[in-house]
Amino acid sequence: MALTRREFLKGISLTVAALGLPAEFIPRMVQAAMAKKRPPVIWLHFQECTGCTETLLRASHPDVAKLIFELISLDYHETIMAAAGHQAEKSLHDSVQANKGKYICVVEGGIPTADKGIHCKIAGKTGVQIIKEVANNAAAVIAIGTCAAFGGVQAAKPNPTRVKSAGDLIKGPPVVNIPGCPPNPANFLGFILHYLTFGKLPALDKLGRPKFAYGRLIHDHCERRAHFDDGRYAEEFGGEGHKLGYCLYKLGCKGPQTYANCPTARFNDVGAWPVGIGHGCAGCTEPGFWDNGSFYERLPEIAGLKVDEAGGKATGAVAVAAGVHAVAGVGRKLAKAKGGK
Amino acid sequence: MSKEQYVWSIPLRLFHLVFVVSIVILTVTGFYIYSPGGGAVAEETIGFDMGATRSWHFIVAGAFVVSVLLRLVLFVGGGTKYEKFTDFAPVNNRNLKNLFSTIAYYLYLTDKHERRLGHNALAGSSYIGIVLVSLVQILSGFCLLYPESGLWQGTGLALFGSIATVRFVHHIFTWLFILFAVIHVYIAVWNHVRTPAEGMLLSIFTGKKQDSEE
Ligand code: SF4
Q: Are B12 and B75 in contact (CB under 8 A)?
């Protein structure tokens, strides 16, 4: 299914917008996308749900996915390649040998390290081994999804298989994190086009995420922000404020601590995103988001208590202790006065 | 015989005033920001309840930062000798002895203890503690205030691991100020009742204490 020129241009324009570049860059990106040799890409799966791949393939209007496959030469991808078994492993081996230091490696999923990594094996090799052989020889690595970027759900406490992120294990090539559960395909495409056009990695934040997509808090460009500032909050799901589209802060929205472009890039090409349809942000692009408490509370709990319950109890205990101390002092004085007589 | 002694310098008293007032305002506005109560503000009114509360929180935080910096300076010098770190921190024998004798005194185990005109070592340690808590609160606060600055994002991640944790710590530490305030006020009143001649409660306003023997 080849891309029509119209679809091609549309996809590029969307990406230029997502990257925050001015329209003058459209011709430059078109040129880069057409002229350059398609970079070989090797896509590895580890402990994950394949949701990242799914979100890429199921884009409802085909420009994004098609454009990606038009731009890259996908040499190995367990979910979509036709080859199987030894044949598949051979193509992986060949691509690594032929393109050493030149291919882009995409890692999807966290890598377990407990018990010598036996909790995730592909073709008889552990994830840790595959990372060493394949990812370490890439020109650049993209950790797609929160599992590859930060460990994700399998790294949640107590992390029984001791899952590590791609960045923790990879030595050599730069690792770019494109977290999200799942991440927006637009951000993956944006990275690829940026790389093809400028020949280098985009600016990254302190967690290795491209700034064009993760440079700003969800909260700071959310469409409900005016309600937030004005003090209008949905108090319960289905309640009056919820129906009126008020801010979801009190329903546990993690937008104020989550970096992502969901409010602008949106999903499924229909302009939808979680907060837009009435559910608070879960904070899925942030490290350890599974351990940051309930999706419906602002903060995690302490010893099974809400923070303010715990704080109130501690203050009460201190006040009682002070009271006992004061009474003891008075009692002692009285006893002394009696004894002195 | 009692003799009036100059104990607390004007900068120290100023620090205390700004510190107390800003903590009260920051705690009240902070709790509102965490959990805005009072029902939804009607549309088509002046509104901006959360926006304004946040602005005040940030402005008063500025005063709080200045007061904490002032106290840090006075730890080293510039005020009276009683305000210096070395006068009360349990880092030398003199202060360590005072620390234990004060604990015994506070637990009613003894009536005799080394009177200090400035802070005793126990109180002094708690003040060093609350200044450290303040520094954590300031750092976490700036990380939350400037989410797009690489410097502050990096600081937050290095100190706390994730921005979500920064938020959590900033909230928990508010409770440490509340706990401190309860204990601090109780102990000050308790001491005043025990040795009223010293004039402890007034000293934070006048700067003077009476050097009296019980
Ligand atoms: S819905 Fe969430 S992200 Fe949007 S303004 Fe409210 S708290 Fe912020």
A: no
Work out whether the CA dihedral A239, A242, A244, A247 comes out positive or negative. positive
Q: Is the CB of A282 under 6 A from ligand 1?
A: no
Question: Which residues on adjacent β-strands are paired with residue B111?
Answer: none
- The half-sphere exposure of A328 on its side-chain side, counting CA atoms within 13 A, is 11
Does residue A275's CB lie within 6 angstroms of at least one atom of ligand 1? yes
Q: How far is CA A53 from the centre of its chain?
A: 14
Per-residue pLDDT reduced to its tens digit, A198-251: 888 999 999 999 999 999 999 999 999 999 999 999 999 999 999 999 999 999
Does the CB of A98 have a partner CB in chain B at under 8 Å? no
Taking CA–CA distances from A234, the nearest residue in chain B reads B40
Query: A228 to chain B: which residues are within 8 Å by CB?
Result: 50
If residue B11 lies in a helix (H) or strand (E), which one and from where to where?
Answer: helix B10-34
Per-residue pLDDT band for A121 (boundaries 50, 70, 90) equals very high
How many angstroms separate the CA atoms of A278 and A264, rounded? Answer: 16
Residue pair B146/B156 in contact (Cβ under 8 Å)? The answer is: no
Q: Are A157 and A291 in contact, with CB atoms under 8 Å apart?
A: yes
> Cβ distance A145 to A179 under 8 Å?
yes
Q: Among candidates B203, B190, B12, B196, which has minimal Cα distance to B102?
A: B190
- For residues B170-175, give the mean pLDDT: 96
What pLDDT digit, counting tens, does each position of A40-82 carry? 899 999 999 999 988 888 766 556 677 777 788 888 888 888 8
Kindly tell me the burial class for residue A277, based on how many C-beta atoms sit within 10 Å of its own C-beta (0-12, 13-18, 19 or more).
Answer: exposed
